[in-house]
Amino acid sequence: MSDARKPFPFREFEPKWQARWETEKTFRTPGPGDAGFDPSKPKYYVLDMFPYPSGSGLHVGHPEGYTATDIIGRYKRMQGFNVLHPMGYDSFGLPAEQYAIKTGQHPALTTAANIENFRRQLKALGFAYDWDREIATTDPQYVRWTQWIFLQLYNSYYCDQANQARPVTELEAKGWSRAQIDDVRLAYVAEAAVNWSPDLGTVLANEEVEEWRSKGHTVERRPLRQWMLRITKYSQRLIDELDSLQWPEGIKLLQKNWIGRSEGASVRFQISNFKSQIEVFTTRPDTLFGATYMVLAPEHPYVMSITTAEQQDSVVSYQLACASKSDMDRGDLNKDKSGVFTGAFAVNPVNHKPIPIWIADYVMMGYGTGAIMAVPAHDERDFEFAKRFGLPIVEVVSSHTGGTSTLLEAFCEPGIAINSGFLDGLPTAEAKAEMINWLESNSIGRRRVQYKLRDWLFSRQRYWGEPFPIVWKDGHHQAIPAAELPLLAPPLEDYKPSGTPEPLLSKAREWVELPDGSVRETNTMPQWAGSCWYYLRYCDPHNTERFISKAAEAYWSDDKPGMIDLYVGGTEHAVLHLLYARFWHKVLFDLGHVRTPEPFQRLVNQGLILGEDGQKMSKSRGNVVNPDDVVSEYGADALRLYEMFMGPLEQVKPWQMKGVEGVSRFLARVWRVVFEQDQTGTWQVSGKIKDVACTDTELRRVVHETIRKVGDDIEKLSFNTAISQMMICTNAFTQAEVVPLAEFIQFLTVLNPFAPHLSEEIHEGVAAVFNRQASLLSESTWPVYDPAALVRNEVELIIQVNGKLRERLMIAKDADEAAATAAALASAKVKDHTDSKTIRKIVYIQGKLLNIVAS
RNA sequence: GGCGGCUUGGCGGAAUUGGUAGACGCGCUCGACUCAAAAUCGAGUUCUAACGAGUGUGGGUUCGAGUCCCACAGCCGCUACCA
Fold this sequence. Notes:
RNA-binding; 7-stranded mixed beta sheet; alpha/beta; single chain; 4-stranded parallel beta sheet; 855 residues
């Protein structure tokens, strides 16, 4: 379509307004210390999850959340808030490095090019960001503070008494040894079984394994020395403090389940003929009398020492078989239980019976103690295993007293204890408590709370990430001085993985080996590191003294537990980014660097946008919609408006190009309320618009209803209904003989956050004709609606007979029941349905409905 | 298997505390304008000839249920032997 055929000239005015906002810095947000900062203004911090700048550019999912936050930000700004609405790039990541492997080009170059493309696309959508606050996690000045925060973790331990992180210098003062301190740091080194991919040349998080495997990479399990972050110390706080946040309940639940708190007991079992004991965790201490065997994880450290000579071969080969499988594979085998007897026995502490010790891969080394007591009668997995290997099944809980002769399946519900000595007759809850008392008084076990959450495996062997600010000397790690930050990775000649778990950085010998004989840590941080604190940096992005100034941190926080007023992003980050960022924030809180205990007060997840075929957008399906195409065909305002009109923000919804045409048509109607084309095809301000008082009360009512509803709907993030109200308002203007200037500008103001370019352009055109001052619409204040304008004197009253609609009557708004009833009964339609009946009851809702119950 | 979400016309979706089901938009039909078309404007559009029926299915509470309660089904997402 040529520009002349466009329903309104967005190709001319959209770039024009974008340029003006940029040169005038319209959306600059002054913070403490900045020129024009007004500390008396209330703050509003609205944040998007920043994008990973991939080579393929923005997809239509990005502008969904970004437009929502943009509308909120512009709305709050019009209401007098000092709005912080920033954007940046999560620019470390494996794809840039994969591209470097293919082309030999330094990842910094591709990243810079990708960022430039993203920035161009974002600017073309007219978002009201303060571009002076733009950040990229790969920027050396950003890396500097990411590393600095890592050192805060490294130099802290978790004080269980105070229930908070404290500097390790406290421990030094108490005379703790270096080794003792290294054991309690929040960032520590440990040997861990990890997912190692030889061809990617890095370890992967559990949740990344499937993705890369499906792309044809191999992933195996092997133990490696890794950096870990002690997030588990925060398990309880991460659960409890969710309560203070306005997050979707589903996301809270997801995090709670991920942290996975369970209550029970630890119990120690004596190994026959050995000094050692095996400790297990159980949520069912009440079933201890029914524990007929034990199972150790194949990697359990005791396995080799307790295995008998006869069982040696089968145990070793089973261990080898398990070692090659990831946790995923173990899961795939699911119900098909496997395992091997070690030949050793333990003693059940309550009845002193010997019970065999097996190893099986249904027990995980990473959870609890890596060992279980098996109670086949009351646990599905144990039951299945016992059936398979012919192990004894002893029933100790019954749904009724007496028990059954043969169990067909495990009975896992609470019941009454049987065959359990001193517990007999007790209901499960009491039996648990009684058993824990017994275990504690006999020093065999104790009450225990267990979490599924594991410490965060924080190191990667890749190149394109933050290097650890750590050097090794004489076998010990130590922090490099903060003054030496940022520590940047050296350029490499090739980024190909070596096939060994040796980090890529170790190839840069000159960088690694220091003159004093110490060597640099060669692992790098995961991509999550940068996204754990970026929201803090936005508040003070150019500070060279601190990661955020005290003043900026104070100003952008308030009394609420979470710093950010509204955070919008996809559900895919429910348990990773959102958990990691909370963890880092709490560490910074404990150390006194931030004043709120939580980062994100209110969280909203935007729903996925599907392709026109109702399937997830993907290149292979060919159903991907490119925002650039939509902008060039319909304009940025149409794209923004369509994405908001599709349906509720949080809902999954399919793309419909016809829908884009629909909102484009709406924008054209708004345009034509004011402009009409003359003979030459030039748009001229229409004579319909007049600077007169509005005498059309219905038109005025619609305008004020629109001001009211759009404001309410923005607060509720119900953008689709706000737009529908603006469509109604536009239709009213279109049909009006005269368009009163003041009312129309109120409407334009309300439209501005949604369609900023079009509304500015129309506003400018109208202002020129009426000699009004041509200030930016984006800088005007949100209109106030007049409640009196909304009032209607007569309303349509719905008349029902026995709940069925029979008549509609115009009646005074405040008519009483007698008047309404009389009017209703006078209606012929009502008479038809009541004549042969007796009226039993009248239900009257003033101004709404009258229901006649008759039989 | 577990957890969570969803289910309303041909389509996307709207419906305070239970109170006119289908706002608004798409599509479609008809009309106006036009030599004609596109664009635009106007009218109509849940089903049914009508009585009536109707918010995934079956029950319940209520004067009244898309909305509340119970049971079930289907789709989508996440998670996966967590002791």
